[in-house]
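TICKET: design request
STATUS: open
ATTACHED STRUCTURE:
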């Protein structure tokens, strides 16, 4: 079972002050990783790191605003200076606000794309440079959505487009990084009752959103389990893949 452990590995997770990211952080820390929580909510990131360290795990926090190139470059450099190059980058942070096509604005579209697609481009560029310089390989896991394979709700033009961009970024970067033994994979969560999902702005859900996932709602740790697999030595030859964790939503 050693191949499923992450002892001594450094994991950088964006958006892990809340929701799915907390479950990813818990699972990776329990598998032995030192986890760095990167979030625009710096106090929340510090509180999550404190929760992990008080549970006997290794954790740290860094403030990072994915909409700012300066912030991303500075935060990744800070992590590398403190801990060395990450083994794993999880691009988890994301906005889930909805807006119907005729009401969507350029600023709404840009806001979603900036956090969900442009941000992961910046973190991937910076973290992968550090991984390549360290010469030990690495892992990148991108958190997209089952909206890519089964449109869940009306009002997801910007959101689904941003996740489509993230999925395409996964494939493009998987090809460029394979020579450095860095794999890039994508997890597609279904419904998880997080603060971001429950308080998403937009018109009331309609359309397929009223269909229930056949096995119930996922927990943040269910998404963490899929991330763990891609991050471990067991998955060393798995790259450019997508794994949906959606409790059967795509069957409903
Ligand atoms: N919850 C679901 O049902 C669901 C389903 C499919 C996909 N997802 C995806 O999972 C990921 C996590 O979602 P969640 O439900 O946990 O959301 P959440 O809102 O509960 O957590 C998102 C985190 O991202 C952080 N964040 C927001 N903007 C940021 C920025 N500019 N820079 C850095 N950090 C920022 C927030 O502070 C927060 O801690 C998202 O990418 C989301 O699209 C969620």
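STATUS: resolved
RESOLUTION: sequence designed for all positions
ATTACHED SEQUENCE:
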């Amino acid at each position: 079972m050693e191949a499923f452990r992450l002892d001594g590995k450094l994991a950088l997770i964006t958006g892990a002050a809340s929701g799915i990211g907390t479950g990813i952080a818990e699972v990776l820390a329990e598998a032995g990783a030192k986890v760095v929580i990167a979030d625009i909510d710096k106090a929340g990131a510090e509180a999550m790191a404190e929760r992990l360290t008080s549970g006997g795990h290794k954790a740290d926090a860094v403030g990072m605003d994915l909409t700012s190139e300066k912030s991303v470059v500075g935060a990744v450099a800070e992590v590398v200076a403190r801990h060395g190059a990450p083994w794993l980058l999880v691009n988890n942070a994301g906005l889930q606000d909805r807006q119907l096509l005729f009401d969507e604005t350029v600023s709404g579209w840009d806001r979603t794309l900036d956090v969900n697609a442009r941000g992961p481009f910046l973190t991937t560029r910076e973290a992968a440079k550090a991984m390549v310089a360290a010469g030990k390989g690495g892992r990148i896991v991108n958190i997209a959505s089952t909206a890519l394979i089964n449109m869940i709700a009306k009002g997801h033009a910007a959101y689904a487009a941003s996740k489509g961009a993230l999925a395409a970024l996964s494939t493009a970067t998987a090809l460029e990084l394979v020579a450095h033994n860095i794999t890039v994979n994508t997890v597609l969560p279904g419904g998880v009752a997080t603060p971001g999902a429950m308080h998403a702005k937009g018109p009331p859900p309609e359309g397929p959103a009223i269909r229930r996932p056949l096995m119930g709602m996922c927990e943040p740790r269910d998404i963490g389990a899929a991330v763990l697999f891609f991050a471990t030595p067991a998955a060393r030859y798995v790259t450019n893949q997508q794994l949906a964790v959606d409790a059967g939503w795509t069957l409903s």
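CLOSING REMARK: The two ends are 35 Å apart (CA to CA). Residues 14-15, 17-21, 39-41, 44, 64-67, 92-94, 96, 115, 143, 145, 189, 191-192, 194-197 surround nicotinamide-adenine-dinucleotide (CB under 6 Å).
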